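Weekly structure sync - notes
Attendees: PM, LS, DV (DV joined late)
Agenda: review two folding runs queued last week.

Item 1: First target. Sequence and structure tokens pasted below for the record.
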Amino acid sequence: PVLPATGHTRKRIRRRIRELRSQVVRDPDPQAVEHHMKDIYSHIETHVDESIDQLFELVRQPSISAQKLGFDRAPGLVMELLKRNGFEAEIVPVPNDGLPTVYGYMPASSQKVDPQSAPTLLFYCHYDVQPVDPLELWDTDPFEPTRVGDRLYGRGMSDDKGNIGARLASIRAF
């Protein structure tokens, strides 16, 4: 349950927001930002095939929650992909016959940083997909990723396995 914030809690939250705002760099050096962004774009370009391969690996694994199909392997695959990309990861069982959650964590810096003052970036993604029916409307196997020109097709390619792949690629680039 979510409890209403007390006056003391609201004050703590406001103080923390002020502290965080004071840490934000207001006017970064444009040349430094441009140089850094060039490095990031270069990394993305030189690793695009690796990123697509990871996405295809996710798409190949069925994970239809409405039918509880593929959840004997899908959580393990997501956990393994997170670990391959530098995360600590674990599968969290859900009570009442729910499907497992996969939790990943990565420190903000490889340097020793106080966790209380380190930035937090939270991603929420789901790795389940909708049923593929009616199957006859598919031109290809929904769980066999396919390239047609510059487009990628497969169940979950955009919702939401594509978002997982894009976020992992971004994190690797940074």
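Item 2: Second target, run right after the first with the same settings.
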Amino acid sequence: RGSVGDYNAIEDKYTIYTTLQRAHPYRAELAKVPVTRRGETLLLDHDQVYFMLAEGDYARIATYDERYLSTQSLRELEDALPPALFFRIHRSSIVNLQKVTTLEQSTPGHWIVRLSDAESTTLPWVPEGPNLMTFVAKANGYWKGLNVDIAKGTGSVGAAQAVGQPAAAEHVSR
């Protein structure tokens, strides 16, 4: 039988464990992104997703040359997708960092994110707080030769081809 001291030690460990669980809850990441098209559910790999746009309580998922509906909200998708790969650039849009080809400053404080999909989609972005630095830090892992002078806040940000990504003409529709 355990002593009162053993019980207290176990209780302390349980308290620490439950506190850590609340502070860092388990994130169940989606292995695939569920989307619907004409009544059927499809499962997309992360690398097939270029960007996501909020559409009310749902999300529009964009691949290289297709658009699908997800019955999950943008918030639900953001919470379930790998944060190292997907980045929210606006309350209504999330981009796959591997699919970003350029980040251009249009006016001071306003940026344009260009993607490598069939339409070379551009999405507006007004970074708030440290978001620009966070974006650049995350994107640095996916872009070759990224050279950014955040302090200046002017000009164009290193429009290099993403690491391991084929040129746009080499993309294959899935």
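Discussion on item 2: The first helix runs from residue 4 to 23.
Action: LS to circulate a short write-up before next sync.
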